[in-house]
Design brief:
By secondary structure, the protein is α+β, with helices and mostly antiparallel strands. The chain is built from 10 helices and 17 strands. Helices cover about 40% and strands about 20% of the residues.
């Protein structure tokens, strides 16, 4: 309750009604009950965990005792099995071995009898001889146990040696196969081979951009041209020098685009002279978007020629965005942009926002329009690459976006292009709207004419055929203080509902307040009331007409079609009557 009082004292809101105050108190009560319930659930969970831990320890103790008994039984069974095996082996032995063992046993028996007789004839150590016999029997049993244990260890060692030998043989076979493959590869790539591996060898060398053209030519194995007296070149393969195609340096466009040098179709705007190896990057300590930004003029732009596919209509940018970069942006504006307060086209990749997305948008008098958001996962990679080529092409429908030759998006014209021949303005800002620094490198910028690149089926291109009309009853409220918590969202919603209550009819105004934002949407009952609120509330809030989303346009179109079918007449949609 104290938090709401503090917000009420520090805010410029109107006094709360009893119903609103009751709702705030109820909200606090519910939050307190939820915390108590969470603590009770936590204590109950801890008790369950403790009981489960004690049960687990008891099971482990019982399991340890069981394992000890099982080991003793296993040793006894192993001893019995080995005794049986030894008896079986003795049965399978030859007759001579059996006879010799029998004679030995008989001799031992006679010796024992003589000892007994001698003891009965008055030898004083007869009892000691009996004890010695029992000791010898115990020693023989112990010796047998030791021999059995030794035999078991020897068998285990033999098994381990066999497994080790098998693993060593497998490794030797794999090494031999790898050696054979390496010999075959060298044979195919050598000067006496059939030349099938030359292209792969060049590709491997081209991946290393630090290697110069001279090093590549020296390192490639080229066969000598046969003489006319030989096979007349019938088996001669294509020349490696003729097919040599070094990868494009990061600061240059591909030769296929024809954007590296000045020509009758266009010219390089940046850099004006000298190599483009250094490029331009935003200052690290920039405090606002215009500080240290790169601004270029796009000369000789004529919208009448662009509508016919002629004149300067294509902008090429060669850039690099490091992997740690969060975002960068590009603006194209008309000459009267008023410090980029109005922007015709805005290009803004954001690597970490909502899983990564590309935002293209426009700005009118300081207010951003409804952006088109495209997941970066559906586009060619722009972050973490050595270099990337970006092309914007202006046509009569809008701004087409091509990334590495792929048609990725289109922003249809939301503001009319300049009617007269002029120079458009290109800006590479140093920071975003919240003064967060941007991180990327611009190597080269080209401006000129190219044939229309967006051809064929464009239905799958993001932004094509989007509905761009203004919403008749919805207002866009901008310039508000940024909010973060749900309580602040509730307070702002209540404030706007009270402020626009008289324009919302019987049900009141419908307010949408996004979290972590500086704007809101207010939908009123009729377009007449929206126009009245736009005039009367302009001194208190920054207001403008909100754009109708594509979903809203489709719903309205479907509703009008159903109404036309049910009414049996052709009725055109109009926003003049509500």
């Amino acid at each position: 309750m104290s938090q709401f009082n503090e917000l009420n004292n520090t805010s410029s809101l109107l006094p709360y009604t009893p119903e609103e105050q009751y709702l705030f108190d109820l909200y606090e009560t519910v939050k307190r009950y939820e915390k108590d319930a969470a603590r009770a659930i936590s204590r109950k969970a801890q008790a369950r965990i403790s009981a489960a831990h004690e049960k687990y320890e008891e099971e482990m103790r019982q399991q340890g005792a069981t394992i000890g008994r099982d080991e003793e039984n296993d040793e006894e069974q192993d001893f019995d099995m080995e005794s049986k095996n030894e008896n079986a082996m003795e049965d399978e032995m030859g007759t001579d071995t059996v006879r010799s063992s029998t004679s030995v046993v008989k001799q031992k028996g006679r010796k024992r009898k003589r000892e007994k007789v001698e003891g009965s004839d008055g030898e004083p150590n007869s009892s000691e001889s009996l004890e010695d016999d029992s000791d010898r029997e115990d020693e023989e049993k112990q010796r047998e146990k030791d021999e059995n244990a030794k035999a078991r260890r020897e068998r285990k060692i033999a098994r381990l040696r066999e497994e080790t030998d098998r693993a060593r043989q497998k490794a030797m076979l794999e090494e031999e196969e790898a050696r054979k493959e390496e010999e075959l590869r060298r044979k195919l790539l050598g000067p006496d081979g059939d030349g099938n591996g030359d292209d792969n060898q060049m590709d491997d060398m081209y991946d290393n951009e630090k290697q110069t053209m001279e090093d590549i030519v020296k390192s490639v194995s080229i066969r000598k041209r046969p003489t006319d007296s030989g096979d007349n070149g019938r088996n001669q393969g294509p020349s490696l020098i003729d097919n040599l195609d070094v990868s494009t340096p990061p600061h240059d466009f591909s030769k296929k685009l024809g954007m590296n040098r000045a020509s009758i179709t266009g010219r390089v705007l940046f850099p004006e002279s000298g190599p483009a190896t250094d490029g331009w990057c935003p200052p690290v300590n920039a405090s606002f978007s215009e500080e240290g930004c790169l601004e270029l003029s796009l000369p000789d732009f004529d919208s009448s020629l662009v509508d016919m596919g002629q004149g300067n209509n294509t902008l090429g940018i060669r850039f690099s965005a490091p992997q740690e970069s969060k975002r960068f942006s590009i603006n194209i504006a008309a000459p009267d942009h008023q410090n980029y307060h109005s922007v015709l086209f805005h290009f803004n990749p954001r690597q970490h926002q909502r899983g990564g997305q590309l935002v293209i948008n426009d700005k009118k008098e300081g207010t951003w329009g409804q952006g088109i958001n495209i997941p970066l996962s559906t586009l060619p990679l722009m972050f973490g690459q050595k270099a990337c080529t970006l092309i914007f092409q202006i046509n009569r429908d809008g701004f087409d976006v091509f990334i590495e030759g792929k048609h990725c998006a289109r922003l249809e014209h939301r503001s009319p292009l300049p009617s007269k021949k002029c120079s458009l303005q290109l800006q590479f800002p140093s920071t975003d709207d919240y003064n967060n620094p941007e991180n990327w490198i611009v190597y080269k910028v080209w401006w000129g004419h190219k044939e229309i690149m967006g051809k064929g089926d464009l239905s799958v291109v993001a932004g094509v055929n989007t509905f761009d009309a203004l919403h008749p009853r919805k207002l866009f409220v901008s310039g508000l203080a940024k909010i973060f918590t749900e309580q602040e969202v509730d307070l702002r919603r209540a404030e706007l509902e009270r402020a626009f209550k008289k324009y919302g009819g019987a049900q009141g105004a419908v307010v949408v307040v996004p979290t972590n934002s500086t704007f809101a949407f207010v939908e009123l009952e009729t377009d007449r009331q929206a126009s009245q609120a736009l005039t009367e509330m302009a001194g208190r809030y920054t207001l403008s007409r909100a754009r109708r989303s594509k979903h809203e346009a489709l719903l309205e179109k479907r509703a009008m079609a159903e109404f036309s079918v049910s009414d049996g007449s052709n009725i055109k949609g109009s926003t003049d009557w509500d």
